[in-house]
Specification:
The structure is a homodimer of 235-residue chains. Chain A is mainly alpha-helical and 235 residues long. Chain A has two domains: 63 residues, Arc Repressor Mutant, subunit A; 147 residues, GntR ligand-binding domain-like (Four Helix Bundle (Hemerythrin (Met), subunit A)), CATH 1.20.120.530. Chain A has ten helices and three strands, in the order αβααββααααααα. In chain A, strands 1-3-2 form a three-stranded antiparallel beta sheet. Chain A is globular. Chains A and B meet through helix 3, helix 4 and helix 7 of A and helix 3, helix 4 and helix 7 of B. Chain A binds a DNA duplex (30 and 30 nucleotides) through helix 3. Chains A, B: GO terms for molecular function: DNA binding; DNA-binding transcription factor activity. Chains A, B: Pfam families: FCD, GntR.
Chain lengths: 235, 235
DNA sequence: GATCTCCGGATTGTGTGCAATATGTGTCCA
DNA sequence: TGGACACATATTGCACACAATCCGGAGATC
């Protein structure tokens, strides 16, 4: 596996339940609310209300809101608090192009640097992704959540395998997640199977140490996600 | 000029003086201390001490420290506070490669998107950079500070011209600054003149709308900075 | 002599109060 | 009727107090 916190990065981390510390609990909860659409773009985040709901004081909530602002998930204005960021078509285009460049760079590095343990971690994610898309016993939201979590782990494992701590940090905090979730929500079964295929292709090129192919596949994979988003945005 | 906050990004912004609000003052001050080396890598940031020095309470200082942590300038551990991040040789290599990729992307976009006002802003920065490197009436630190500020403005103007808000945010918060400052500190006059030349070349390719050349020149420009850093790191 | 335990100081984490600021609403006047 | 002003309310910004936690050292024990 790789150095310090690299593996922990990417996405909001595990589900917002367990006995987490205050700010972390608040951060994960709010992030999940935004990612899953319970908080819509443009909606205000009111510290006191959130604090009451999570049974915390305003202090840790405040901290969490600021972290989300640093991530770019919400925008804040002095004395006016935070609102969920809303994204126009151009923003989506820009965001996905950026994510494609960063993650294909991560895949490129992973292909040069990955150790056996890194590959194993990617495989775990891919296995869970495959299982999740075959689940028929869950409602749509719950299944999407499961798929999203597995998808997150696949990408996180690849990024961790890159061994580039700062890149991992950037991708974890700055790159969208609401969009990814929304995209998955709309995926047909064919599209999910295609994602699964690309995960495997990327995994293989990384394992074989072929940086250029890994990068190209990752770029394409993310562009497919972008196109899916744009299609549902237009509808 | 470009949309919303894009132009304001990159680096810590203006010098930490004027009548700024609490957290912003704290953020800028601490950032400057780190960038200019008054706080060395590995050193602890003690909230109470900083609050006393800036005549604030711990609350805004705490917020500023968390912002710096989000930027990756300091690392925090629960119940143990924040210490200035220290970078090994590999970190420097990774960081500069990342910065080169992001900023050359910015230059590429700028070459496609820049408006007349954007070019004018770049020109302003270049003019000040040229003036700063010719100054002989200042001590070394003060001159470096001036050069650094002008350099920051050149790069910020190019990034603003890219019109990519998220990219600007990433570059402003995530990419180093202590390294840039340190690099400038060690630059010979020849090297400063070369930087100035590259700024102009990049500016011209952007103005003429040649994305590929702009990106390549920016990549090279940043790699030159990286090599300078590595040389002084080895000494 | 080495290691373990416990204690005290230092520092961060969290809760809460009050002041500063923005927003919405009603009223008055043209 | 429409607009401007003033006030009431909602919300954030900052300060401070107290609780939780960590770290280093002194002393005890083997």
């Amino acid at each position: 596996m790789n150095e310090n916190g690299v593996a922990a990065a990417y996405g909001g981390g595990p589900l917002p339940d367990a006995g987490m510390a205050g700010p972390v609990l608040a951060y994960s909860s709010i992030r999940a609310w935004i990612v899953e659409g319970r908080l819509r773009p443009g909606e205000r985040l009111i510290e006191a209300r959130i604090a009451a709901e999570l049974k915390l004081s305003r202090t840790p909530v405040r901290e969490a809101v600021r972290m989300l602002a640093a991530d770019g998930l919400v925008v804040t204005e002095r004395n006016r608090g935070a609102v969920v960021r809303s994204l126009g078509r151009q923003d989506v285009l820009d965001l996905y192009e950026l994510r494609a460049r960063l993650e294909s760079y991560a895949a490129e590095l992973a292909a040069s640097r990955a150790a056996a343990g890194d590959i194993a971690a990617i495989d775990d994610g891919i296995r869970d992704f495959g299982r999740a898309i075959r689940r028929r016993d869950l409602d749509h939201l719950e299944r999407t959540r499961l798929i999203g979590e597995a998808n997150r782990r696949v990408h996180a494992a690849i990024i961790a395998a890159s061994g580039h701590a700062r890149l991992a940090h950037l991708l974890s905090s700055a790159v969208d997640a609401p969009l990814v979730f929304e995209a998955l929500h709309e995926f047909t079964n064919n599209e999910l199977a295609r994602s699964n295929l690309f995960h495997q292709l990327i995994r293989d090129t990384i394992a074989k140490g072929e940086p250029v192919r890994a990068a190209q596949l990752m770029h394409e994979h993310i562009m497919q996600g972008r196109d899916r988003i744009l299609r549902s945005l237009d509808a």
